[in-house]
TrEMBL record:
Keyword Transit peptide set for record: no
All copies of domain Two component regulator three Y, residue ranges: 646-699
Protein name: Two component regulator three Y domain-containing protein
Record-linked InterPro entries: HATPase_C_sf, Ig-like_fold, Quinoprotein_ADH-like_sf, WD40/YVTN_repeat-like_dom_sf, Y_Y_Y
Species: Thalassotalea algicola
Length: 939
């Protein structure tokens, strides 16, 4: 922790000092910054498995996780974090700890333990089940499955266990430690006494030598002894080659057509399995020591376990040439002179790249001034070298092999960078802006500085275009100077970092900065994008269709079209300076410790597997990939994300999106979600590999947040059923109401129709009478009038007492009671405490109409036999109460189904703003309808 704080503190100090406008300070500080940071970072042991010293076996599962077994148990490693399954871990508990071997068994493993036998281990869930092999000892050193049997070595005996019957028997006694390896057809066993092959339930000798290690490679078994390396095919035909040092490390390549040997001296070799022909490789060598376990994974990383810990090696085609001069800063520049690579040093003048080269004249550096020995840039123009130094521009002639300072006024400036186009040399200075030099005429043709409008005088890089635009990278931004029309356009800085270099591709300008990323502009200077923030870049160059740009830690390649930037594998250990040079399809790039050589071949894209390595739901951890169910929004869900690429390189980046929404960038490999509303969520995760390339693989997770109790799926079904019932009931009630209204309309229409017919008949008779009188037919007219009078008299004499007919309530109601008794055999009692002067005739008529309609409706639709009517005055209201001895009036307030009588009653009540109330019977006996008429409204 203290070391990390020291790194942070030193970084801040150096960055602050690097902003001082002095190239000596800038370049002197950049070297220790890169070197010190690089050294400190490599000194901090970041992998959690680096110091596991007692590892017995290393393998990889189908998903791509690395598994290491040993005294600590079974450890899963995902390139960032590790999980160890053992008896001692409460979260990841298995019934054993010390593990000897981990053997593939379908998509599971067979784990052989020291103290508790053999177990089938599921790497996707962490669950185990015992292999029920009956042995005298529970110490199982190696168990393997082969053709329907388990074979176990335990305490100098080999046991065979038939899987389908559970039968176990000892089939071989050994003389020492034994381990197995299998091909498609054969099972082999190595012991200190030799190599054996299984034949009809017994092991037969193949080699009678002490076998150090064995490995199966396709259909071949590879074995090492003290003096030889053997290859044995399916027919047990043997090929061998001699070896000069002991080999204990042996592993097949990931594609299984070849294998690696690792000697105790640290020498790594690669061979073909079929003929033992040696193959070139780029893994180099390792430290001396006996290798206990070796493995080559899918990302082309070679894993080596020894008593010193776990080491990973990455194959590299990069060749490093350590070249360090005794100068203040080894920030050198490369150039090509007479077809050979030469170095422009920061204090030692020009130097040959190859020690045996004679391309540079002897004693050439004695021709430089003292300041001129500090070279900032070297350009090859028409075979001559133009050299920018602390003391102006110098030229080395290829024909004459002479060095001289170019003769133009004030050619003694501190120079930083040069650029050449169409006979014009553009010279960037530290204090004086930009000079334009005409090589043919040997004269300065233009000079522009901050006084003329440049954003700064310190010109760090230059890029010239055919149309006269000159892009200048400075300490405070970019200036675009057009040398034809003398205009200047300044692009402000996007941060505190200096602009270090410019490159042009795909009609875009790529400006690399010291910490603010790479800014991408169009030709007009409009900022299109910013990528790779936080990386301290140096100079950039266009190589084929890509942009190559060095950085304080690594070399990056940018795709100009997609803006994707990737770290070149195995360059993260180098801190780069200057521009690259290409010689014979090889790229040479200077770094602070020398020069590296990189072949111009594109590396294959590694499509890393992306997973959710671990889920933590409210404190409960799990590696099982299954839907996550939580009960409320307050619960916390954390996903540990993994990209299974074990090569060193960039810190992996992760993005996620929810329910196919927009992508969100994560700042680490952990995704924490909380406050999720009730519902279903689909989480999709993408990640980069170790080189910064986005993998095509995705990780997925489903989260279900439970609804509150009142909104669960079952409750919602109940709500839906209730809603349907309510809607159905309302619809039914509306239908009944519509039917009631329709019936009333029919009755009213029929009544109007009947009345109309009577009126029409009367009018016709009167018209006929008038006509007969005009014709003097007196007798006929009398006859018609007589018929008409009979009809009118018959209508007036009908005995239906449905109105007062000019009488009072005191007369009409007793008559109505007698009518009811004679016709319907029901009784009607009447009481009135209402003075006559309180009511006019119209009100009495309407009250009688209510009484008539209510009782006749009750008789027709109810079962009441005795009715009682009372009229009272109380609190300025007339109270009409009609009651019966059954339930005839209980439905009179129904707004859904009603008849003509109920319609009349409501219309009369509305006319007088009277209230209508009904009362249910007590003990199922008697019902009432009570109507109150306000007297004040009436008056």
């Amino acid at each position: 922790m203290c070391l990390l704080h020291a790194v942070t503190g030193i970084t801040k100090i150096l960055k602050r000092n690097a902003l001082v406008n002095k190239p000596t300070t800038k370049r002197n500080l950049l070297i220790p910054l890169c070197c010190l940071l690089s050294g400190l970072v490599h000194a901090v042991p970041t992998p959690s498995i680096q110091y596991l010293a007692k590892i017995n076996d290393i393998t990889q599962d189908d998903d791509g996780y690395i598994w290491l077994v040993g005294h600590q148990g079974i450890t899963r490693y995902d390139s960032i974090n590790s999980i160890t399954f053992s008896t001692n871990d409460a979260n990841w508990q298995v019934p054993f700890t010390w593990t000897h071997e981990l053997e593939h068994y379908g998509n599971k493993f067979i784990a052989s333990s020291e103290t508790n036998g053999s177990w089938i281990f599921d790497p996707k869930t962490g669950r185990v089940e015992p292999v029920k092999i009956k042995t005298e000892s529970k110490s199982h050193y190696h168990t393997i499955a082969f053709k329907g049997h388990f074979y176990t070595y335990s305490k100098l005996q080999v046991f065979q266990h038939k899987i389908n019957t559970g039968e176990t028997k000892a089939i071989f006694d050994t003389k020492g430690t034994s381990f197995f390896a299998k091909t498609a057809q054969n099972l082999y066993m190595r012991t200190t006494g030799g190599l054996f092959v299984l034949k009809e339930n017994n092991f037969e000798s193949v080699l009678q030598e002490r076998i150090r290690s064995i490995v199966a490679v396709n259909n071949y078994l590879i074995a090492t002894t003290e003096n030889a390396l053997y290859s044995i095919d399916e027919n047990n035909e043997i090929k061998s080659i001699p070896i000069t040092s002991a080999i204990h490390g042996l592993t097949k390549t990931h594609n299984s057509t070849s294998f690696f040997t690792i000697s105790d001296q640290g020498e790594i070799k690669k061979y073909r399995a079929n003929d033992l022909a040696e193959i070139e490789h780029g893994f180099g060598n390792t430290r001396k020591g006996r290798i206990k376990a070796a493995f080559h994974d899918s990302s082309n990383v070679l894993w080596l376990a020894s008593n010193l810990g776990v080491e990973t090696l990455v194959e590299s085609s990069i060749k490093n040439y350590p070249i360090v001069f005794s100068v203040a800063s080894n920030a050198n520049d490369l150039a090509i002179f007479k077809g050979e690579l030469i170095i422009g040093s920061y204090g030692k003048g020009l130097q040959n790249f190859r020690k045996d080269s004679t391309v540079l004249p002897e004693n050439i550096n004695k021709l430089f001034s003292d300041k001129g020995l500090r070279i900032m840039d070297v350009l090859n123009i028409n075979e001559d070298l133009y050299i920018a130094t602390f003391d102006g521009v110098w030229r080395l002639s290829a024909k004459q092999n002479t060095l001289e300072r170019i003769n133009f006024p004030n050619n003694n400036k501190l120079l930083l960078k040069m650029s050449y186009l169409n006979g014009i040399l553009y010279i960037g200075t530290n204090y004086d802006g930009l000079y334009t030099y005409d090589i043919a005429n040997n004269r300065i043709v233009d000079h522009v500085s901050k006084e003329d409008g440049l954003i700064a005088n310190e010109i760090i890089d230059i890029y010239a275009f055919e149309d006269g635009d000159i892009w200048l990278a400075t300490t405070h931004g970019i200036s675009i100077y057009n040398r034809n029309n003398k205009t200047i356009k300044n692009l402000p800085s996007q941060g505190p970092g200096k602009y270090i270099s410019l490159a042009f591709s795909d009609n875009k300008v790529f400006a690399a900065t010291l910490g603010d990323g790479i800014l991408i502009y169009d030709r007009e200077g409009t900022l299109l994008s910013i990528i790779a923030k936080g990386i301290e870049f140096s100079y950039s160059s266009k190589v084929q269709d890509e942009i190559w740009v060095g950085a304080a830690m690594g070399l990056y390649i940018i795709d100009p079209k997609s803006h994707q930037f990737n770290l070149l594998p195995n360059t993260e250990r180098y801190s780069f300076s200057g521009e690259l040079q290409i010689v014979d399809e090889r790229v040479f790039y200077n770094h602070y410790g020398g020069v590296i050589e990189i072949p111009l071949t594109k590396s294959d894209f590694f499509n890393a597997n992306v997973f959710i390595g671990k889920s933590t739901i409210s404190g409960q951890q799990s590696i099982v990939q299954q839907p996550v169910n939580i009960n409320s929004a307050s619960e916390v869900v954390t996903f540990d994300l993994v990209s299974l690429d074990y090569r060193p390189g960039q810190a992996k980046q992760f993005r996620y999106r929810v329910n196919n929404g927009s992508w969100n960038q994560l700042s680490s490999s952990q995704l924490t979600l909380t406050g999720l509303a009730s519902g279903e969520y689909n989480i999709e995760v993408m990640a980069t590999n170790s080189l910064g390339q986005w993998s095509n693989n995705r990780a997925f997770a489903n989260i279900s947040v439970a609804y509150p109790w009142y909104w669960t799926s079952k409750i919602r079904i109940i709500y839906a059923v209730v809603l349907i019932c309510v809607i159905s009931l309302v619809a039914w009630l509306l239908y009944l109401r519509a039917q009631s209204i329709r019936n009333i309309h029919i009755l009213l229409a029929n009544e109007l129709k009947t009345k109309g017919k009577r009126d029409l008949s009367a009018n016709r008779n009167i018209n006929l009478t008038l006509k007969l009188l005009d014709e003097n037919k007196i007798e006929d007219a009398k006859s018609v009038l007589t018929q008409n009078l009979e009809v009118i008299e018959q209508d007036s004499k009908h005995d239906l007492p449905d109105s007062l007919f000019g009488k009072s309530l005191e007369v009409a109601i007793p008559y109505f009671a007698e009518y009811l008794h004679q016709k319907h055999h029901v009784n009607l009692a009447y009481e009135s405490e209402l003075p006559d002067h309180k009511t006019d005739y119209e009100l009495q008529s309407n009250i009688y109409k209510i009484i008539y309609e209510a009782i006749t409706c009750a008789i027709s639709n109810g079962d009441g036999r005795n009715f009682h009517v009372t009229l009272q005055e109380f609190k300025s209201k007339i109270w009409l109460t009609i009651s019966d001895d059954e339930t005839s009036f209980s439905h009179f307030n129904n707004k859904i189904t009603f008849n003509m009588s109920m319609y009349y009653i409501r219309q009369i009540a509305n006319k007088y703003k009277a209230s209508v109330n009904t009362f249910e019977p007590n003990d199922d006996k008697g019902s009432q309808i009570v109507i109150s008429f306000p007297l004040m409204d009436i008056s």
